[in-house]
Amino acid sequence: MGGGGGEETKLPRVDFSGVDPAAPGTGRWAEVRAEVMDAVTTTGVFEAHYPQLTPELRASLFRDAIRPLFSLPVETKRRNTYGPGKPFHGYMGGLPGLDFYESLAIVDGLKPALVHAFADLMWPSAANDTFCELVNGATKRLGDLEGMVRRMILEGLGVVNHHEKMSESTWHLFRMTEYKAPNSEEKVTGYIAHQDTSMLTVVCQNEVNGNEMQTRDGEWVLVKPSPTSLIVNVGNVLRAWTNDRVHAPFHRIMVSGNDTRYTAILFSGPNFMIQAPDELVDENHPPRFRPHDNDDFIRFCVSEEGARHEDKLKAFCGI
Question: Is 87 a domain residue?
Answer without folding.
Answer: yes
